Structure prediction request, 625 residues.
Amino acid sequence: MTPRADEAVIVAVDLVPGHDGTTELLVRLRHPNGAEGPVVLDEETGLRLMNNCGAASLGDLVGQSWRRIVEGS
Amino acid sequence: MFDLIVRDGLVVDGSGAKAFRGDVAVKDGKIVAVGQVSGDARRIIDAGGRVVAPGFIDPHTHFDVQLLWDGAARPALEHGVTCVVPGNCSLSLAPLKAGDRRQVVGMFQQIEEMPPEAFTQAFEWTWEDFAGYRAAIETGLSINVAPLVGHSVIRLWVMGPAAQQRAATPAEIVAMQDLLRECLAAGAVGLSTSFVDTDENGRPVPSRFAQFEELDALCAVLGEFDRMLQCVPEFYATDITIARIDQLAELSLKYGITTTFSPVFDNAGTPENVPRIMARVEEQFARGAKVWPQMQTRPLDLSFSFLRPSLYFARLPRWSRVLRQAPEIVLHALRDPETVAKMVADAGPDGGDKMLGRLICRGGDAAPAAMVGRTLRDIAAERGQGCAQALIDISLENGLDVAFLDADIGHDNTDRIGPMLAHPLVHIGASDGGAHLASFSTYGDTGYLFSEFVRKGGHMSLEQAVAKITGETADIWGLKDRGRLQAGLAADIVVFDPDTIAREAELPTFDMPGDGMRYVRAATGIDTVLVNGQVAYANGAYTEARSGVVCV
Prediction:
């Protein structure tokens, strides 16, 4: 799924510790106006995102549309 | 004749004032004198070389269920905690109609990870309303309780199944207001709400279906009683958290109430999070709003087993691909030597020593007892293996049911966290005591405050640290009778060794109903704990005292 020019895109991904002791996914989104901001996805959402994108590693998520985060949720 | 005098201690009175050597006298459950006290007492506690402080207050717990069979909220009391606030995150055990119990139990099991037996064997459901729940716990309290009432259960009482489906009608909002009034009159310290939590089926809890008008109306009632609002904002995104801070501030100003929110974490991946939150909190306090961020003292730990999918290995493509599968597929893959060889190769030329060697075998599951508490490096060396190979083999040998801990992996930079905790607008709390039972220990944060940020880091004086978890907490929560060593206030007192107070290592224990497991930490350096003038814990043991009260 190629991101549209008018939607937020994942530009960086990292792993962070979660409040509940699980590993969570920190994704940094770049919005169409150039602004960037982080969102932390819980483990279930993060795993779903990786599956949705067919990602083998974190780097495979870079360039994906933010919509992949909410797919199948 | 006094009932009791704590003699010759270093009195740290909870106000932040400089400590002094003196005595604290107690009579009829109250502090009656502080300073150089003359006269006799039925009991003398020698506090020479020890600190005498007000009992600690833990403002964010989920002891709602445990208090029904354990009035000491163990092990909170032995850590010097004399007052707990349960009912956080929109969930309390009252008001709750009998027909709705199963639904709320599911929500509690999601948050607390408590075994089903806790709800079916450990107590009798004797109540529906808040006064009934209060009566049920009051029969055996060793610790004081300032209970919140949960927005989700108020919603469920009024709306039934629609509570998790839609916005409330104006008539339903009025009914919720009336019910909240009843709960506050029966002793609730405030209302809790959540914008984050889910039930056991992954559905948002009822409070998340509320429109702002509903929360506004409930806060109007809090204003009538001058009580608290506790909130879990969308802490996964700084911008949304800041928007919630603004909403809480408007409610605080409009109704003259105090609000608090949690959790607030500082992680290396989001270093701007706390500074941005605190900048907004400072702005709102400057406007006159009361929006207290709660921050926990303890670092975040990560844990995983191969039994359930985890992101822990998401940086390693081969591991990630295998371990995201269902357990039977994982087992099949890990029995394939070629797959395992590739995974081990991915872990680095040192066999995974640098990447995995620090992991600790947790126990509480199928892990062999001889491995529990030891590092993977140590276990692997004993087996004559590299760390990655040992991790795979140990998991295979035990049906994948071996959990490993990666400790202090977030919220762990003492030189950043220390000044944050010391900030005058940061409310130390968010322990989550009584929750996450099967994931990690939520006890001992107060001991960690002293060991890490007073003794080791020097970010706070002893007096500041005590004030943060006693007098300041009592002021924030409106607990007028607690939090200070002052004549006329309740005699909640802890005597501790300032050189050794700390939390011990995390260990699995099987003391939940149905032999359910939880992780706990014992206390170090706590000599004596008094609750309303009676010795509830001394010399490493709990007493028979049942002097705790609902203390709103």
